Each structure stands twice: as structure tokens, then as C-alpha cells.
């Protein structure tokens, strides 16, 4: 009885105070109610509202940095030029990976510096507009601007759904403007998701891949004879491989064409070391985490992913043309000896284009690169640099600085007329000082794991070798994109 009485009193008192509080709230002056409005924008992936300033979507968890460049406005081509003023490097902190290439490449010592893992403009008054920092940046994170001009980036016209101005042609990865492996992998997966949505809009349903026992790779969902592929994926780098795995997982009928060998993009990657600060989810494979590792280690992981998942890549298939058939509205993808039909095309070819190769035995080895970024990663090595332009000379000079390595520069001509006078003078001085060895009128004959064979004046010479850098120029992807109809624009991006 006493317990029931105590409960009744407590309940009555609680109701009384709740009633008083509700009464006060009802008659409270309106100016005391403070409502904070939150500016939101829809997530490009799942369309749910994302508060402004968020780095990740609270709905699907996608990193919003993937769409930063695609959201940027196109630079007005008719803007007034006027007095350019003094040049200055503009560094995009989002794209900067802290490799220090720009710091090392700048002729005006001290203009740039590394601070907190990012490149900064330490002494802007020293910049003379050489733009070496722009040339060596692996992520296009550095641009040279004048006066109050904003930073711009030259990229294909790509919308937030990764579709270009050509309906049905998508772009993912480095070519879209952000050269990070992690970003490329995510973009490849999301671009395929968008293509699947477009297939469903057209009434084409595909069944996602069923689970398998893990002992054998599941088969691909190939189209019946006479029917087109759903998507043609051009390139098998980080974006292309991720897109291929996603297509296989979703049951989409895909074909992946790679101009070189499997994992050629990683094999030819200019960096000697990799660093991924966080794991990356690879479709059909799982979490990938590479911390302070080498290119060779990543290459091994890449080949393991391909072997375990059974993803199919057609190698040595360089795409020469892509055009839409006006009658069927299908894309005709043409290679050297074949032609394929596809409803959509995903370009994952990278922004460096097609490097000029020597076509000699052994060139497919992972020790061969077509660009140098971090010269400081190489020490006490036997190195061969091939080429006679500014890029080859600057690479040879950087690698031989302070006698860190034993560097040989091979050039098929007898003089370096194509290079700038300043680089020619520096090269001759380095040769006189014994910092490097120049083999004029020479050609590479064969590349072995521990040596290289060069031909000079009719004689074959074998040199010890750990790494080869072929810096003989190449073909830019812009011409190929223009032939496909993709517009190249300059986008204004924020720092």
C-alpha cells in the first residue's frame, strides 16, 4: 500500500512539472527560439543531403573530394587578359601528396618548401615562372598563375556523374584531374555504378554475380553472339581495374582493353615508393592497404587481385578510334586488328598519354619507368636514362646529384640540340665533374634484370643496371580525346 501511494505521488508531481514546462513553451516569445539553418547539397552518389563542409557523405560514406574538380566551373575563355603581373605557383592542398618533386625541380632554390607533408610557397617573390613544378607534379596539384588569377586545371569536360560532353562516354581516374591511386579506384567503381543505373533506365537488367566458394574465379557474364557489350573499359590501371571488377561483380557485360601488358600502368608508374594512408576497398577482393611500399610490391598485389578474381583483361589492344553508330547508337571501339560494340565507354587511360617505347627485349620489366618523380628515392644504384630532351637531362642530373648513384645517359644523337641551353651547360658540367657518363650515338639493345646492353659505334656494351628511365617523349591523350569528341576545358579550382 505504501509503495502504491509513493508511486502515485511521484507520478502526479512529474505530470505537474511536464504540464508547466509545456505551457511555458507554448507561450514563449517567438524571438527566443533560435533555429540554425544548415546548408546542404545532394550527394552525387546517393542524392542524400550532405551538410556543407562535410568530407564524407553521411548516407553512403563516399569521399566528396572525388567530385571536387568535376564541380569546378569552366574558365571563361573571353576573360580580359591585361597585365599578367608576376608569376606565382598555386598549390592545391587537396591534390598535393607531399612528394617534394616540385621543391627539387624548381630552379629558384627556396621558392617552394615542404611543411606538414604538403608543398607550400615559401618565397613567392623568387618565382620566375619556369613552371618546372607544374611539369613534375604527379597529381597536377601545382599551377603557375599571374597576378590575381585563380588556379586552373586543363581537363576533359566531365560532369559529376563522370560522363563527358559526349553522351555515353565516361571518364574515371587520373585523366579526370586527380592523380591519386585511392581516388582512381573509387572513381572506377562509382562510374560503373552510374552506368548500371543508365542500363536500368533503358530497361536492361543485369543480375549481380552469385557468391562462389573462393577456390575458383566466377565466370564473366559475356554477351551472346551478335549482341554488344554493356561497357567497354579502356585502360587497366587503378581506375580501369576497379571498374572491371565492379562490372564483373554487378553482372554487367564488360570488355577491358589495355594497350600494354597486364598491370602496365603500375609497372610503368614513375614512383619508386607508394604510400596509402588508409585501406581501400577493392571490388571482389577486399581491403587493400599499402604502407610505404615499393612499386614491385604493389605490382605483385595487382597481379594477385587479377588472378584471384578472374577479371578478364585483353592486353596489347591499343584503341585507335571510338565512334557512335548513328543507326544503332552503339559505340564502335576499334583496335589495331579488332572492333567491338558497346553501349557505353569508360575511359581510364591516364593523363600521361602513350610514352614512346624502345620496343626492345626486357622493356616490360618493372624496373623500367617512363617518368621520374622522386630522385631522392634512388641511392647507390646503377641507373640508365634514355633520351636527349630536357626531361631526360634533368632526370640524369637529379639522379647523379652528390654522386648518389652511378648514372649513364644514352642518346641516339651526338648532340643535345633539343634541350634548353641551361640544361645542356649543366649536363656538360656534370660530365666534366664525373657525376655521370654520357653515351652519345648509342641505342638500347636489351634489358636484363641486373644489366643492360647498348650498341655504340657498332659495338655492344653491357653495363650493370638496377633501373631504366626511358624519357623519349610520347603522345598526349588530348588528341585522342578530341577525335572521340570529348571537349578539353580549363576548370577553375580552389586551393
Produce the secondary structure layout.
Layout: H1 2-27, E1 40-42, E2 49-51, H2 68-71, E3 87-91, H3 101-105, E4 112-115, E5 118-121, H4 132-136, E6 142-146, E7 152-156, E8 169-171, H5 181-201, E9 229-234, H6 238-249, E10 254-257, H7 264-267, E11 273-274, E12 280-282, E13 286-288, E14 293-294, H8 295-309, E15 321-324, E16 331-334, E17 339-347, E18 354-355, E19 368-369, E20 382-386, H9 390-400, E21 406-411, H10 421-432, E22 436-440, E23 442-447, E24 451-456, E25 459-464, E26 467-470, E27 474-475, H11 477-484, E28 488-492
Parallel strand pairs: 8-17, 9-10, 9-17, 19-26, 20-21, 20-26, 21-22
Antiparallel strand pairs: 1-2, 3-6, 4-5, 7-28, 11-14, 12-13, 15-16, 16-17, 18-27, 23-24, 24-25
